[in-house]
Amino acid sequence: MIDDLHAAAPEVRKMVEEVAASPSHVPILLVCTIRSESLDKLHDWGIRLPEVESFRTPLLDREEAHELIRALLPVPPLDEKVIETIGERAQGNPLQIKEFIAAFTDTQADSVAQRPVTIADLAKVHPAATLEAVLESRLEGLTAHERLVVDAAAVIGASFTPAEVGALCPTQEPGVILDVLDALEHKELLNASWEFMLHG
Question: N or C: which end of the chain has fewer CB within 10 A?
Answer without folding.
Answer: N
